[in-house]
Design goal:
ProC C-terminal domain-like fold; Rossmann fold; alpha/beta; eight-stranded mixed beta sheet; amino-acid biosynthesis; globular; cytoplasm; binds 1,4-dihydronicotinamide adenine dinucleotide; binds (2S)-3,4-dihydro-2H-pyrrole-2-carboxylic acid
Length: 278
């Protein structure tokens, strides 16, 4: 029952805001039960408060005892300091949820008190409009009721996928970072549209609708992308020509490299932090 739960964000950046927006729009957690904190930057907190009607305060002023779920949403390199700060203030029945790329549940467990409940999640910024693909994996001590709550909380932001923690790096490469690849694709497509005479705003809308339609076809028809692609491709037609150019310019390889590099970076962040920790 999320209505009675209190959620506190550590960090008020773009990911925190996307999650707050998703939660507010889903109307599952009342705004008065959402606390948003930052280490510094009162202006950013004022902006968030005005936009969403949530409580905002500096981290030191948070009413820690009232919080059910702490959501860590600062940069990964701020995790150690934030967890150390939290350790003295948190009870065993309170849960730490991390959205930080590369921060493992075992790292969090090690930095917090014995048997502290932690959950690692990986949303993306489409949480803002409740269309995120979000992963969740559990720590060693997570209780069922807390797993359910966090799943419900993440469902306010889109689709939730429970995965093994070993899959978190690739999930980050695919879905956490994923929106950026599509934005990049859209930027490039828009450039061509404009160069060839379309008005920028119109080109942008055409491209967005095209990507949205393709994604919706995959989701709603349940067919493999290759099958859908073949249906677009008339023999010796325009699509054939376009896809051949993509292949000639190593388009597939470029996409695969992007995902693999992002996944590798997630792993590398973990290794760097764990090295510092030992
Ligand atoms: N932006 C994205 O698409 C996604 C980001 N993430 C993760 O979310 C986290 C935040 O990313 P962004 O929002 O993009 O970064 P951001 O730079 O926009 O925001 C970070 C925020 O944390 C605050 N902060 C820094 N140290 C702090 C501390 N010790 N305690 C409290 N607040 C602190 C900063 O003032 C800032 O408001 C990262 O760890 C990232 O891996 C995860 C999924 C997607
Ligand atoms: O770029 C990053 O590190 C974060 C994690 C996933 C998306 N943004």
């Amino acid at each position: 029952m999320l209505e009675n739960k209190t959620v506190a964000f550590f960090g008020a950046g773009s990911m925190a805001e996307s999650m707050i927006s998703g939660m507010i729009h889903a109307e599952k957690v009342p705004a008065q039960q959402i606390y948003v904190t930052n280490k510094f930057n009162g202006d950013r907190l004022t902006e968030i408060k005005e936009r969403y009607g949530v409580h905002t305060m500096l981290q030191k002023d948070l009413p820690y005892e009232e919080v059910d779920y702490f959501i860590m949403a600062m940069k990964p390199y701020g995790a150690e300091e934030a967890l150390a700060f939290l350790k003295d203030k948190i009870r065993p029945d309170q849960v730490v949820v991390s959205v930080l790329a590369g921060i493992s549940t075992s790292y969090m467990e090690e930095k917090l008190n014995d048997e502290q409940q932690v959950i690692r999640v990986m949303p993306n910024t489409s949480s803002m409009i409740q269309e995120s693909a979000t992963a969740m994996s559990l720590g060693s001590y997570t209780q069922k009721r807390h797993e359910r709550d966090v799943k419900d909380l993440l469902a306010c932001m889109g689709e939730v996928f429970i995965i093994e923690e070993e899959q978190m790096d690739v999930f980050t490469g695919l879905a956490g970072s994923g929106p950026a690849y599509f934005y990049y694709l859209m930027e490039e497509m828009e450039k061509v549209g404009v160069e060839q005479g379309l008005e920028a705003k119109k080109a942008r809308k055409i491209i967005a609708q095209t990507i949205y339609g393709a994604a919706k076809m995959v989701l709603e028809k349940g067919e493999a992308p290759i099958v859908l692609r073949e249906r677009v491709t008339s023999p010796n037609g325009t699509t054939h020509s376009g896809v051949e150019a993509l292949k000639a310019h190593h388009g597939g390889e470029a996409i695969s490299e992007a995902v693999q590099h992002a996944a590798a970076r997630s792993k590398e962040i973990r290794e760097e932090l764990e090295k510092v920790a030992h």
